[in-house]
Amino acid sequence: MTCWSAPGKFFSGDVNPRASVLLLTMGDHTALQAAETIAKFGACLEFMGPDRNLSPDVMGMNLTLNMCERQLASSNGDEVNHDMLVNGAPQTIRSNPDGAFQLLRIGDAVSARNIHATTFDGLRFVRVL
């Protein structure tokens, strides 16, 4: 199925993306929309394309390690305690005691935000390190 048809197939129930999904992309913005839709259904998402960049015409994100691998390797499994974040306390979630680092997504990694909000979120995380 194409990136153009994927979101409709998922929402209609024709396809259930709850397992691992390999998204083949040629670098356009439709791949980002399909990826977001697939991720919202809880699937482990991996990208494959002609180079290491995902949608260079949109933002030029470099793929060095896919998100699922990062989540599995992190100590917090990508979870954030928002009360602690807002109150300026360190993040203490340790759902994976073998994790080598905390995974803290900010800005557009969570939802569309402007650069000021993204910078402020980053500051909230790192000022308590």
Order of strands, main sheet, comes to 1-2
What string, H for helix and E for strand, traces the elements in order? Answer: HEHEEEHHH
Main structural class = alpha+beta
* Mean pLDDT over the full residue set: 76
**What is the overall silhouette?**
globular
Helix tally equals: 5
Radius of gyration: 16 Å
**Total DSSP E strands:** 4
N- to C-terminal distance: 44 Å
Q: How many independent structural domains?
A: 2
Summarize the structure.
The chain is α+β, with helices and mostly antiparallel strands. The protein is built from 5 helices and 4 strands, in the order αβαβββααα. It is 33% helix and 11% strand.
What does this structure look like?
With 129 residues, the protein is of the alpha+beta class. The chain folds into two domains: 1-64, no CATH class; 65-129, no CATH class. It is built from five helices and four strands, in the order H-E-H-E-E-E-H-H-H. It has helices spanning 6-12, 29-40, 67-73, 82-86, 115-126, and strands at 20-24, 44-48, 53-54, 61-62. The protein has a two-stranded parallel ribbon. It has a two-stranded antiparallel sheet with strand order 3-4. A hairpin with a 6-residue loop joins strand 3 (53-54) and strand 4 (61-62). The protein is globular, with a radius of gyration of 16 Å. The mean pLDDT is 76.
